[in-house]
Amino acid sequence: MTLLRRIERHLDATGMPPTRFGRETVGDPRFVFDLRAGREPRDETSRRVTAWLDGRTKR
After folding, report:
1. Which tens digits make up the pLDDT trace of 18-52?
2. Cα(24)–Cα(13) distance, integer angstroms
3. Cβ(21)–Cβ(7) under 8 Å?
4. Alpha-carbon span 39 to 13, nearest angstrom
5. SS3 sequence of the chain
């Protein structure tokens, strides 16, 4: 599953706004919108977001 798809599933499941997700994970409220527009995140950014999502899933 792509990172964007995983983020979209999290947003749908939690009702979290994309701006809040971006702020909480990488400090960028435009992050999800940029991904939707085709932005490719750096490897470190992808790892950080994945770790954040993994932490939320295990709760």
Report:
1. 999 999 999 999 999 999 999 999 999 999 999 99
2. 17
3. yes
4. 23
5. CCHHHHHHHHHHHHCCCHHHHHHHHHCCCCHHHHHHCCCCCCHHHHHHHHHHHHHHHCC
